[in-house]
Write a structure and sequence with these properties.
Blueprint: H1 3-18, E1 39-40, E2 47-52, E3 55-60, E4 73-77, E5 82-83, E6 92-98, E7 104-109, E8 122-126
Antiparallel strand pairs: 1-5, 2-3, 2-6, 4-8, 6-7
């Protein structure tokens, strides 16, 4: 066998033995405009950075609730720090995920915001 084939076999065996489901970088879903008086948010896992023009806001909420993969719905509600969104403004949410094996993986998650009420804002997105 060639070295390449042996390396592939070894990688397959290691992945299968550990049961580790490796995270992949999330695709860019596109920035969606949303109007609203204000927004506060936390993420189920990792770090959320909201780029609102020249201002950056960060909210933290660490604790893995489920593995993120295609088809999952991610919901964040209330808390943390936030900013004001005017009609037509865009946001970009960048997420740094940490797996159960402490592998830090960068991903970008751009989402439309859905308001629940005046003081408890939430957004959700499937991907």
């Amino acid at each position: 066998m060639t070295r390449a084939v042996l390396n592939l076999l070894l990688a397959f065996l290691l992945t299968g033995l550990t049961g580790c489901e490796l995270f992949t970088q999330h695709p860019d879903l596109g920035v969606t405009n949303q109007s609203g008086p204000s927004w506060n948010g936390v993420w189920y896992e990792g770090k959320v950075t909201i780029h609102n023009y020249s201002t950056t806001y960060t909210a933290y909420n660490v604790g893995i609730s489920s593995k993120l993969k295609s088809g999952n719905t991610i919901v964040a509600t209330g808390g943390g720090s936030g900013g004001t969104l005017e009609p037509g403004e865009s946001i970009v949410i960048s997420v740094v995920l940490t797996s159960a094996y402490d592998e830090k993986v960068n991903g970008t998650f751009d989402s439309k915001l859905y308001w629940t009420d005046e003081y408890d804002r939430s957004w959700s997105k499937s991907y």
